[in-house]
Design brief:
The chain is an alpha+beta fold. Helix content is about 25%, strand content about 20%. The chain has twelve helices and 17 strands. The chain has helices at about 50-65, 70-75, 80-90, 95-105, 150-165, 240-260, 265-280, 310, 315-325, 330-335, 345-355, 360-370, and strands spanning about 20-25, 130, 135-140, 190-195, 205-210, 220-225, 390-395, 405, 410-420, 430-435, 440-450, 455-460, 465-475, 480-490, 495, 510, 515-524. The strands form four sheets. It has a six-stranded mixed sheet. Helix 7 (about 265-280) crosses helix 9.
């Protein structure tokens, strides 16, 4: 992945001071699945069409087209290196002639030298690699790619720590699959990490597969990280912090490749950003993507693989792990995605195994994103809620009027209603919702936000046509506001594999992508 982007200040974790008492629709009780050491049989990679393969090659060639500075590369729309190279790996069997040769050179390792002329090949022989139990660090001692002995040692120690934390099975370790052995490439089967001046091109680092791919979805990986992470190339960030989060993020891509390297972009990038926060909780580099999450963009489909939204998807995975109090749920989802399931199918399968409804869960996600204070760990550091509508009801302005919103798949819209101080203690509020039928993934959630800071949450009971009402007490001395969250939770996709840009889940098209809701709030 890692692309240079304007960064927020790196801040230590701050505990929220507000207390929110929340009654969810149903208690969340989960049981983690046992960790599987053995992989299932290798499903084959579906071949790319010629047009999709040409598009993948074009995007990959653009990564290294005359970059003169990090600023110039950052200004380009598509600089997501790991995913671009992943797509190119998938395209390689379809490409022929000069296009195949070019693609293989782009995918070559830095130690391939001139054969890596489209990437970051070393122009001098490498020094003797420095290796640990699981990782070998490759480097050179001259040219712009040179790394100091101290940086080599620091990188090795960091990568070994990340490797153990993400794949180990001891206390405090996460038990994900280890990256696959690459045989003798790089010297032996350990994970190879190459240091190069990729910061000059605007990148923190990336992981890729070798151009001689096996036909299955389980792939080995090698990684390239910047050779010094000097602050001047990375927006002033501390070099050790940049190394830490990049190592945690990129190594998890190597882990993902052992499950299914063809998986959906929002799934791969969102869980990789989630992993940064798991391994290095105090750095909080991921906050730079919070404005592009479902808090900052609630009406954007959560599986949208936009330039920064793919990273902002961390919020969905953070919600899953925090609300179930079980980080193993992300591992279980990756296990479920190994094979024919795409991302949202895997999520639904794992939730169902825990007795949880997808629609209820996604509606809770939408509601949780509007809560104040400590709904998430570090919620106080996140952006403000983006309300679709806000209205204050008074004795003379007793109704909101009919409000209409069209929701795309996997998105939410929120309305907040305030009582004026002039209302009596017997005031009541009626909410009327008309939405699509329940089979389309429709839901509506209501929150009563009390003056003492407590929040009560429940579903509005909708009939099969998607219509329903709810009435709540609305005295201004006890109720600060009432919020309603409208939800299109539909994950149903069609035409999977036909979108060469992998914009949404399964590289397909959402079936229910224009669900219209109306809502009215009025005093009784």
């Amino acid at each position: 992945m890692y692309t240079y982007a304007p960064r927020v200040l790196l801040r230590s974790r701050t505990l929220a001071v507000l207390t929110v008492a929340v009654a969810l629709v149903a208690p969340l009780s989960v049981a983690g699945a046992a960790h599987a050491d053995k992989q299932p049989p290798q499903p084959l990679v579906q071949p790319m069409s010629k047009s999709a393969a040409a598009n993948a090659l074009s995007r990959a060639k653009a990564l290294w087209t005359n970059p003169t500075s990090a600023r110039e590369v950052t200004a380009r729309h598509d600089t997501d290196v790991t995913m671009v190279l992943r797509d190119l790996s998938r395209a390689l069997p379809t490409l022929t002639g000069d296009d195949h040769t070019t693609a293989a050179r782009i995918l070559a390792r830095p130690t391939d030298g001139a054969a890596d002329q489209y990437g970051d090949g070393y122009s001098v022989p490498e020094a003797t690699p420095v290796c640990g139990p699981d990782v070998c660090v490759h480097y050179v001692t001259s040219t712009a790619d040179a790394a100091t002995p101290a940086q080599v040692t620091l990188t090795l120690n960091t990568m070994e720590h990340v490797y153990t934390t993400e794949t180990g099975t001891g206390a405090g370790q996460m038990g994900f699959r280890k990256p696959l052995s690459d045989g003798s490439k790089g010297g032996d089967g350990r994970l190879d990490v190459y240091l190069a001046d990729v910061g000059a091109e605007g990148y923190y680092g990336y992981c890729s597969t070798d151009p001689t791919l096996a036909p299955g979805i389980h792939q080995s990986a090698y990684c390239v990280l910047d050779n010094d992470f000097r602050s001047g190339q990375f927006g002033g960030a501390l070099p050790v912090n940049s190394l830490d989060v990049t190592a945690a993020h990129e190594f998890f891509h190597a882990v993902q490749f052992s499950y299914d390297f063809t998986e959906d972009t929002w799934f791969m990038e969102g869980t990789a950003v989630w992993m940064e926060d798991q391994v290095y909780d105090s750095i909080n580099d991921y906050l730079q993507y919070a404005p592009f999450s479902a808090i900052g963009e609630p009406r954007v489909p959560v599986d949208y693989a936009g330039e920064f939204e793919r990273y902002g998807a961390f919020l969905f995975w953070k919600f899953l792990s925090e609300k179930t109090h079980d980080n193993n749920i992300i591992r279980d989802i990756w296990t479920a995605a190994d094979g024919s399931r795409f991302s949202t199918q895997a999520v639904r399968a794992v939730l169902a195994a825990r007795g949880l409804s997808w629609t209820t869960y996604f509606a809770n996600f939408g509601a949780w994103n509007t809560l104040p204070g400590n709904s998430y760990q570090e919620r106080a550091l996140y952006p403000a809620v983006k309300w679709w509508q806000q209205v204050t009801l008074t004795k003379s302005h007793r109704a909101s009027g009919l409000k209409t919103v069209t929701l795309r798949h996997l998105s939410n819209a929120s309305m907040r209603i305030f009582p004026s101080k002039g209302l009596t203690s017997r005031a009541k509020l009626r909410i009327t919702v008309n939405g699509p039928g329940l089979t389309l993934g429709t839901a509506a959630t209501i929150q009563v936000r009390r003056g003492n800071g407590k929040v009560e949450i429940w579903k509005i009971n909708l009939n099969s046509a998607g219509n329903g009402t709810a009435t709540v007490a609305f005295p201004p001395k006890q109720v600060r506001a009432v919020a309603v969250v409208l939800t299109n939770s539909s994950p149903t996709m069609t035409s999977c594999g036909t979108d060469p840009n992998y914009v949404y889940s399964c590289a397909g098209r959402a079936v229910y992508d224009s669900d219209k809701f109306t809502i009215r709030a009025n005093l009784l």
